[in-house]
Amino acid sequence: MTTGEPAVAVAGLVKRFGDVTAVQGIDFTVASGEIFGFLGPNGAGKSTTISMLCTLLRPTAGTAQVAGHDVLRERDDVRRNIGLVFQDPTLDGYLSGEQNLRFHAELYGVPRAAVADRMRQVLEMVGLWERRRDKVQTYSGGMKRRLEIARGLLHSPRVLFLDEPTVGLDPQTRASIWDYIRQLQAAEQITIFMTTHYMEEAEFCDRIAIMDSGRIVALDTPEALKASVGKDRVQLHTDDAEAAIAALKERFDLDAAVREGAVTFAVPGGEEFVPRLFAELGMPIRSVSVARPSLDDVFMSYTGTTIRDAEGSSRDWMRMAARGRA
Ligand SMILES: Nc1ncnc2c1ncn2[C@@H]1O[C@H](COP(=O)(O)OP(=O)(O)OP(=O)(O)O)[C@@H](O)[C@H]1O
């Protein structure tokens, strides 16, 4: 659900580091209440952009407003209105969940009278109220991540920045973190700005921006992005992959490659193409499969790389954020 003025509004945003232009004049808005995913290969400029939005880096040119406040002129207002959930754990293991949150409440100046109620609210939301008095070092990985999310929410931010909120967690815990994220969006009308390398998670986002070489190369809903690729992925098995690749080029002018052990190529109207393939390829085919484009295909078509190759991370900005806050 989205309402009112944008949670994030960026216009002509540029960041140069000496000769390197990390962000080359980008424009986008994120609606209030939206779950917005930010994807891109290493060095694309994601961390630099997010650092500017979180007021940790000054833009070279352009403007950005977060929660209605300008990142340069109203830095403190921006900071009060955002929550950050770091990739690297920054909880104190020797303290209880409750003590960790209390410390954060003081840091953010949450009014004393409001702290107890708010702590209960966020701890219940992430299912940790019963465990609040236990030391954090006795929590599982998923519980720690949930506590970090609760902490990021404690001061009632309008925009929550999450850096790969589920990386390194087992599938069941990942699913439960996503349940919390969705509940949170519904209960608090919060805007979520997240990075992820899991394409199946990018599917949960209302919209996705793909960044490459300092520019936003695609921005839309997952469905629209997949439709924009316009081609299906066809995979076939033959006794001679090299010969099949050469025949696909010669007879259909298609560029194929071996991926996941199968001869793979993209073609519009994949299902209609299959009968022609059998009729005209000129060699025996053992099996064929056709798939609609996935977000992996979207990522590949806009950036020329796979998300797995691009892995390895947008984590640094969170480390920087941790240092900036320290
Ligand atoms: N402090 C800095 N000084 C000089 N160059 C920088 C600095 N920070 C980033 N860059 C450069 O800016 C470009 C964008 O980097 P950025 O970290 O924003 O990319 P990213 O998309 O977040 O990548 P990753 O996924 O690897 O974190 C890169 O060429 C990087 O080397």
Task: List the topology elements.
Layout: E1 3-17, E2 20-32, E3 35-39, H1 46-53, E4 61-66, E5 69-70, H2 75-80, E6 82-85, H3 97-107, H4 112-125, H5 141-153, E7 159-163, H6 171-188, E8 191-195, H7 199-202, E9 207-212, E10 215-220, H8 222-229, E11 232-237, H9 241-252, E12 257-259, E13 262-267, H10 270-280, E14 287-291, H11 295-303, H12 316-325
Parallel strand pairs: 3-8, 3-9, 6-7, 7-8
Antiparallel strand pairs: 1-2, 1-4, 4-5, 9-10, 11-13, 11-14, 12-13
The protein binds adenosine-5'-triphosphate.
Adenosine-5'-triphosphate (ATP) binds at residues 17, 20, 22, 40, 42-48, 313-314, 316.
Characterise this structure.
With 326 residues, the chain is α/β, with parallel strands linked by helices. It has 3 domains: 6-226, 3-Layer(aba) Sandwich (Rossmann fold), CATH 3.40.50; 231-291, Alpha-Beta Plaits (2-Layer Sandwich), CATH 3.30.70; 295-324, no CATH class. It has helices spanning 46-53, 75-80, 97-107, 112-125, 141-153, 171-188, 199-202, 222-229, 241-252, 270-280, 295-303, 316-325; strands at 3-17, 20-32, 35-39, 61-66, 69-70, 82-85, 159-163, 191-195, 207-212, 215-220, 232-237, 257-259, 262-267, 287-291. The protein has a 6-stranded mixed sheet with strand order 6-7-8-3-9-10. A hairpin with a 2-residue loop joins strand 9 (207-212) and strand 10. Helix 1 (46-53) runs parallel beside helix 12 (316-325) and helix 8 (222-229) crosses helix 11. The longest helix has 18 residues, at 171-188. The protein starts with a strand and ends with a helix. Mean pLDDT is 87; it is low at 312-326. The structure holds adenosine-5'-triphosphate.
